[in-house]
Amino acid sequence: MEKDNENISLKKIIIYYINHWRLFALAAVISLVPALLYLFLTPKTYDIMTKIELRDNNNMASSSGFNIGDASGLMKSFGLGGISSGTLNIDDEEAKLTSNSLLKQMVLQLGLDVTYYKPYAFDYKLYEDIPFLLTTDLETKEQFDCSVKFQVKIDEKGAVTVKTKARKKKNTFHFESLPAIISLPQGDFVLSYREKPEYPLSMDIKIQPAGWVAETLAEDILFDTYSENSNVLEISYSDYERQRGKDMLNTLVSVYNHQEDSVKRVESEKSISFLDGRIQSVMSDLSDIEMKIETYKLQHKMTDIEYDVQFYVEQLKELETNIIELEAKVHVIDLMVEYIQDPENKYNLLPSLLSSGEGEKGGPITTYNEALLERAKLLQSSKKDNPLINQATEQVDKLRNSVYLSIENTKKGILLTLEDLKRKEDVIIAKMGTVPTLERSYIDFKRQQEISQAVYLILLQQREDLALSIGEKKERARIIESAYVKQIPVGPRKLYAAIIMMLLTVCLPVLYLFAKTHIEELIVEYKKSK
């Protein structure tokens, strides 16, 4: 019986509402008004898009094979990673592009921290057709920590009245004409005409910290990649001011490229400073060896020693070439060990002195340098008490030991190979019963000279490559398609208008009838109680 009563009650309610169909029809007509207002008053919003290709900056080393006179070939023979051999992570680059510091620079360049509201329009932010220009100095913008609202009114005679509101404190200023300086506790603001407007005129202006605007934009800017293996990134943003959206995306990429180029320049200059010191040291060693050879020749009257030992040198040529290569490696590794053990270089990047031509992805030096770069970026964009900086420092300290072990293990392997080659050389020299001791000593001197020359070429070529990279303007993000506006607008959406109309058509009559019924019941009960 309870189920039948429920069915009868539900049927009764439905019939009750159907009998008031005229009320629903009236609500449909009324709901058409806000739906049309939404469609006509909401500005057309468009998707603005740009496409960029993210690239590595790993063009420092050559790809040629080993040669005594070819430093890049010797660099390639080393098995350790380098400073510029890190892999490209799209997620990391997206985080950089939406970082508050980078977006803040973009906001300040375009002046988006100042909002000009269109008169007689709901929250419409102008970009191009702006009659006024509100400016302040960069120091004030950097120290800004609140929003300031300006209400500007110009009467028929051109007199200007400005009302300001900041931290619930209001002020009123009167000026006969513009430009004018508005002095507030937050700083001095200059209000001027961008173009001569028609009088009378009224406009609301708001200036706020660029970091606040950057926070909002970080949520509105969208990223999309074509595939997991693709380095092409699609950046999009929706705006009803199409030129503002295009300028934002183009400026965002430009600021990103400038920031990455600045980091590369700083690190390259540090590496050049390191190489300059090592070049001077090697040049001094080379000069000492040459002086010893000259003194040795004069003492023993050996003017044509090259002719005398030519036959034996040909037999030892292959062994000597390999020995020189390995000795040069040991020398360069010693330079790196000295650099790592220097306390002043504790948190400096390891120069790409030991890098291969292509770089060893995932090597200990690569991982160590990437951790240093991440720590340096955190120090630039965060406060010193940020726990992320402490975590990055701990990670760098742990990786430094693995780097040192990697270099030591490489050195041990080279020394073992070197000892084997020298044993083979001793066997051949032992057979040269007719070779004087003087000639063999001269060979040792000559070998030391060639080792120093090879090391000098490595350092010199690496320094030249770094110097060229500083002067070379290479963009990290190559623009495939400049910012453009899509043809079909994304707002206002007709579907939203239809939903608004349907909800109002149903909800208004139902609420009215429900309220009416309960009020009548209350009145009846009240009369009965009397």
Write structural notes for this entry.
Helix 2 (21-41) crosses helix 14 (494-529) and helix 11 packs antiparallel against helix 12 (387-430). Helix content is 58%, strand content 15%. It has helices at residues 2-18, 21-41, 71-76, 90-97, 100-110, 138-143, 210-220, 242-300, 305-308, 310-341, 364-381, 387-430, 437-471, 494-529; strands at residues 46-54, 114-117, 125-126, 132-135, 148-154, 160-166, 169-175, 180-184, 187-193, 201-207, 222-225, 232-239, 477-485. The two termini are 35 Å apart. The chain is elongated and about 135 Å long. It is an alpha+beta fold. The protein has 14 helices and 13 strands.
Main features:
elongated; 4-stranded antiparallel sheet; disordered N terminus; alpha+beta
The average pLDDT is: 78
Q: Give the helix level as a range of percent.
A: 55-70%
The value of Rg in angstroms is 38 Å
Number of helices: 14
Category from helices, strands and their pairing: alpha+beta
Global morphology? elongated
Can you summarize the main beta sheet? 6 strands, antiparallel
- Quote the beta fraction: 15-25%
Number of strands: 13
The largest sheet has its strands arranged as 3-2-10-5-6-7
Distance between the termini: 35 Å
What's the order of the H and E elements?
HHEHHHEEEHEEEEEEHEEHHHHHHEH
Poorly predicted residue ranges: 1-6, 59-86, 355-359
